[in-house]
Amino acid sequence: MAKRKNKSKPSPSPPPTSLSDFPWPLSSSPPLATVATICLFSLLVRVIVSLGPYSGQGTPPKFGDYEAQRHWMEITLHLSPSDWYRNSSDNDLLYWGLDYPPLSAYQSRVHGLILNASLPESVALRTSRGFESHASKLAMRWTVLLSDLAVFFPAALYFLWAYSRSNSGEMRSLMWLLSMILLNPCLVLIDHGHFQYNCISLGLTLGAVAAIFSNNDIVGSILFTLAINHKQMSLYYAPAFFGHLLGKCFKRNYSILHVMKLGFVVMATFALVWWPYIHSLEPFLEVVSRLAPFERGIYEDYVANFWCGTSVFIKWKRLFTVEPLKLISLSFTVLAFLPSLVQQVKYPSNLGFLYALMNSSFSFYLFSFQVHEKSILLPLLPASLLALEEPQLYSWFIHYALLSMYPLICRDKLILQYIASLGLFLLVFYSPDRAGMKRSQLYYKNLIWLVPLLGSVVLHVVYLLMKPPEKYPYLFEALMMLLSFSQFVFFTFYSNVKQWKLSWSNSGKKDV
Amino acid sequence: MASTATKSPPRATFTAAAWIFSVATCIKLLLIPAYRSTDFEVHRHWLALTSSLPIRQWYLDTSSIWTLDYPPLFAHFSYLLSLPASLFDPAITSLSSDGIHTPGTVLYLRLTAALSDISLFIATYRLLTTSRRSLFTLVLILWSPSLFIVDHVHFQYNGFLVGIFMLSLGFLEEGKDLAGGFVFAVLLCSKHLFLVAAPFYFVYLLRHYCKGGFFRGFGRLVIMGMAVGAVLAASFGPFLYYGQIKQVFSRLFPFGRGLCHAYWAPNIWVFYILLDKGLAFAFTKLGFNVETPAASFTGGLVGDSSPFSVLPQVTPIVTFILVLLSMSPCLIKVFKNPQPRHVVRWVAYTCTCGFMFGWHVHEKASLHFTVPLAAVAMNSLDDAKHFFLLSIVSCYSLFPLLYEPQEYPIRLLLLLTYAFLMWVGFSSHFAPAKKNGLVGWISGLYLVGIASVELYGQFFHPYLFENKLPFLPLILVSFICAIGMVYSWLWQLIYIMRHT
């Protein structure tokens, strides 16, 4: 909690009459201890959020994501890798079959080993289905916490270091940025409340971004490939990585050589991760078919994207079969990320790269096939990295990302955690220093901002207290989805324009 | 820092203070589902008790084993809290001997604990604005990990009570002695453990308030006596009227409790018991016949039987005399020259004495001097160094309260975050701290000792002994914390002798 304070306080030239130095003067606060305080506090928040219930707690027979992860541990622990993605008497793919790439499976196996050492009955083959106990909840929560600590936290620090080298920011703003990245309420709620391991794939992506910021393109490629291999959703970022790295290679001599080098690194990483499945075609295709569940339809539940948002007026599912829908959604997605991709190929820059990451992940979130509401975490990551450049956008985005996940949070009974982590985020965001005051002034002046904000607050309360009319049982979900969708579309336009503006105003100047 | 804080407009200071409080409140909200001790049911029962029974029944009722053992004003506070309780869950105010742990009950009681901390906020904010204190003082008090652990996990209302205590101290500092005395009387009638500070209040008010000649002084004595008497009458009067005063006092001061609590509070008696054990062991080895007492400390059972086998028995009177004796240097100083600016130190010292030598002291009582000392922690580098160590020791000594594995990372992270926060705050405030270090090599070694005790208790002990000797890690915690407490006690004593 303290951290944001120190970060924002220590302004280098404190104006005498304001509270800009609250509570510490910048020059003398030790940076390492400050970083440690922020990290410890973020860990504390995660731990106490994890006191809450997890998805599907006590709801047989299907349970939720918690059971999925536990089941994967069970499968990967007891079966050989070749059987992980194959239907068998021990592995009923209809019951939470593994549908993430091999790296996720390996991670499940490692965590399964940990659980097996302390609570073997919680991951016993077949008999452990739906296993729930206080001790196993704790152990499972620990695996997420340790993954977060092992992947996301170091990546965030690496990014901070890389960022501070390419942008000469004051320490207080850097500390603020670190807390913005670590205290992202959506990520904390989904990983440590709902129960998932987004911290690993997002952490690997963050590490890749940091590596590319510090010109370690090879390390960056490896890390990003690993991210894709942990969750295929990381492909949302692929156009940005591709465009940025390609653009960077073109700027060098022997660009083809550089492109080939990176291509080789990516292929080699893929080969390594997929080793058990690439000896023949059949197992490879088995895995691939698990990763792309087209049969589940173009959208599920109420996700705030284009297909679901427009389905209020156009019944996509009725108008088209799956095949043409695939093609349409693919072309829409490509069209949406193309401008940003082209910009990065032509004018690769660190800042532009961050915008590109947001634009490409937004294009996938809005237009691609089978998107989950949790996928909003992907565009949210680059938005958090841009928090210093676009503070308004980030806090605005957090509001609507949270709103889009609100029905999910309510289902998981995490409302208390939702309120408290949103509260903490807002408090950190508007810390009572000079910069925080400025942020809050900008924010609330504009009526265009206030109306949807009011709408979202009303929806939050109404959803909790009122029953929807019988004729439209999902009326409130639909309204929340539409509101979030409208904002997301706006963000996408805005950040695409911002990305292109970068190259118009000072093309090439910001290149590193 | 202090200067800029006071220079900045009051509104900005208030915003910052409210910000600090709000952050703490968010953490408290997140702690709602955490482990609760039986104290939760105790306080829940008191809500039910005070709302469903008339006053004359309050101290007679035995419908639950958690009988009312706080003074009457706290019972009135419980009654106040019971009024809106049925909005959350009507079960909260139902008299039943089984614990009630419905979600509504937990939410409501946790919220009352979080909201009643507003008294601490008001008191510390007053301390901030009436004297030149830095905002970091507020951080030190409102984010105290000990308060989070005791109030918002274990469950009690210490933040609220310490807030009243700080309010009284603030009044004394400003020279508003009458208000200070009045508020202290209210506090005493809410929680009688603060009685240890009474000798100080008596001497200080006598010398500082009742001065200026015989008549004027006597007149003021009467005024103060009336103010304090009114509070006492309001709280104890009804019971005097019903003829229950003996019953009330037997509840407030239960006899038959041992010298130490099941888990030894880190005070001087830890050394005494250990010495006794050591001597008994040595004598047995040498062939003497040593009677082993029935109620052994290490068994965690402490009755009124005599627990010492070699050393002389300790009686409540002995502890009482020791407490007064240890306070006396400070009381003499107060008597000679009562100065408002030293009030916080003096009070903290008297509370420390009560903690070090008192009878049946709870580990939670260390809050009564750790929190006030935060108010002077920013005065000098020496103060900061002392507070740094003391707050770590005090918080660490509370660790055994949260013994469940779920809360393990919470207590650890609370303490570590706070320690690093203090480091950042102190070393940026006191520039020389960077050169000399906030922690000297002795205290550094001591902190390493705490870390090793923690590592031993968590990892090596279960590995070596499995489930045997479950009290050994606790004894180690008491022992190492007692060393720190003795240091803090001596440090405070020396400081008071030299500087006040």
Give an account of the 3D structure.
The complex is a heterodimer of chains A (512) and B (500). Chain A has helices spanning 2-8, 31-49, 65-78, 102-118, 134-166, 171-182, 185-195, 198-213, 217-230, 238-250, 255-273, 281-291, 306-310, 316-319, 322-346, 350-367, 377-385, 391-411, 415-429, 434-445, 447-465, 475-506. With 512 residues, chain A is mainly alpha-helical. Chain A folds into 2 domains: 2-9 and 31-54 and 137-506, no CATH class; 65-131, no CATH class. Chain A is globular and about 60 Å long. Residues 1-20 and 507-512 of chain A have low confidence and may be disordered. Chain B has 500 residues and is mainly α. Chain B has one domain. Chain B is built from 22 helices and no strands. The longest helix of chain B has 28 residues, at 214-241. Chain B: One of its GO terms (cellular component) is endoplasmic reticulum membrane. Chain B: Belongs to the ALG6/ALG8 glucosyltransferase family. Chain B: One of its GO terms (biological process) is protein N-linked glycosylation. Chain B: It comes from Carex littledalei. Chain B: It is an enzyme of class 2 (transferase). Chain A: It is found in: Endoplasmic reticulum membrane.
Biggest interface between chains? A-B, 46 and 47 residues
Indicate the mean pLDDT of chain A.
Answer: 88
Task: Tell me the series of helices and strands of chain A, N- to C-terminal.
Answer: HHHHHHHHHHHHHHHHHHHHHH
Number of domains of chain A: 2
Using only CA atoms, what is the Rg of chain B? 23 Å
Considering DSSP H and I runs of 4 or more, what fraction of the residues of chain B is helical? Answer: 55-70%
How many individual β-strands of chain A? 0
Quaternary state of the chains: heterodimer
Enzyme class (chain B): transferase
Main location (chain B): endoplasmic reticulum
Protein name (chain B): Alpha-1,3-glucosyltransferase
Membrane topology (chain B): Multi-pass membrane protein
